[in-house]
């Protein structure tokens, strides 16, 4: 174990790949490894990139990776892949776009699949980001597809999250705002050369002016990711939001959420699926009441 | 206690109102009461109504309540009010629209506010629905605003959820589909007399044809809620979806989720906020690792 951790810290890619698999499969070895590595984390900037399908998140991530590489930063990429009925095609396309970096030893890319964990994707993603952090990555990009529940959970755990939107969303920035407002550190208008970009920007500003923010108002940056336009400005905005938020207080806030997610995951995983099934059956048939069942679970652990 | 439960079952509105407050405030008395009442539940149809702000959910709920009342059904309404920066205005307007029922003793309306419970809104909403069920309501309508995480959690716990959409959402049914596809039992196109209704219907069908469904494909019904058009068809669709799903299997499935939510809420509430804060601080400063902290919590309970 100390050997494994050391190899990871030295930048051994095979040791890192093995660790990433262990983290994704939630093995006990992963827990022990992460415990060992934890003191060496806290250096990477964890950047979330999220938004609706087709918004160009991967092209944008690609552009940001290029810039970071030009600064000789090491970059970890976690592509979160909810087993959505839709994700198949999009994900394949996205991965192909990112393949330009596969040959670059300064970029480590890892996809994460859902697999129906009771505890959700968020704790596994956090662990993966910590692993990359301990392995000496300067930045970890967490790309999530869609704006569902898992994505919001994950984005809340990043240091800063960029929400990517595109023109032509009509009146409907509204519809996605509920989850997004909470997590957006930066808004990126991609495909900003298309008609409707002005309108989208106005809508975002209108939305922001209505919201009661804890911190500063998220900046809105226009990009044309496919041509590399505005990417430097986007990265600058991401970094300055992360900086403004103040290291410690922000970090404590994030750890509050992460600890709860970890606790929750471990607890949910303690109930065997068969037991849960039979409990649900008993309640559905009104043979038992749910309050007594949950009490019993609580007493037992 | 037996007295209180009996009064509720007899339809005493004051006893019910007191119980609803206890449930919302998560008091120990509420737990004991629900345990007592649970054997008398399982009769009400729990209908979720969700969708983006401005889709006309309350007007629609209002129409459905009217129909149910014509059948002399007793109806409970739970209006879930996430403390979103946006909800203020919308909620006020919505509540006013429902006030026509406040004078009707066959309709019991209750708003639920978030209040930052660690365990989320879903367990409290489930308990409230069970309370209404035990009080002899034939239907419980759970109306949620927006399509955020809390709303999805809540909708998953209903017997059937109607997702309300309106024309003019552009290409962007997409953007909200991630969370919604999982929970939609019925799609309702409201304001179906407006331009774009055909297009929206095509988009919904296209979306559904791509999805891998467990059960039957959700029906799509057009309504003009403000004029009462299509409401009877909407209610019919909701009931037949609830019926098709097969009482038991569906009920077991829902109870599986509900039990986990209840378990999760009770566990999360066991960690005092001050302790969570200081743990988060220790981790942010790298004085402790999160894995050891969570282990300690797990050992202690």
Structure description:
Two copies of one chain form a homodimer. Chain A is α/β, with parallel strands linked by helices and 301 residues long. Chain A folds into two domains: 38-270, P-loop containing nucleotide triphosphate hydrolases (Rossmann fold); 274-301, no CATH class. Chain A contains 13 helices and seven strands. Chain A has helices spanning 2-9, 13-24, 28-37, 57-70, 87-98, 122-134, 149-155, 173-183, 197-210, 231-244, 247-268, 273-284, 290-300; strands at 45-50, 75-81, 107-113, 139-144, 160-165, 186-189, 220-222. A seven-stranded parallel beta sheet of chain A has the order 3-2-4-1-5-6-7, with helices on both faces. In chain A, strand 5, helix 8 (173-183) and strand 6 form a beta-alpha-beta unit. In chain A, helix 2 crosses helix 3 (28-37). The longest helix of chain A has 22 residues, at 247-268. The first copy, chain A, starts with a helix and ends with a helix. Residues 83-97 of chain A have low confidence and may be disordered. Chains A and B meet through helix 3, helix 7, helix 8, helix 11 and helix 12 of A and helix 3, helix 7, helix 8, helix 11 and helix 12 of B.
Provide a short characterization of the protein structure.
The structure is a homodimer of 301-residue chains. Helices cover 53% and strands 13% of the residues of chain A.
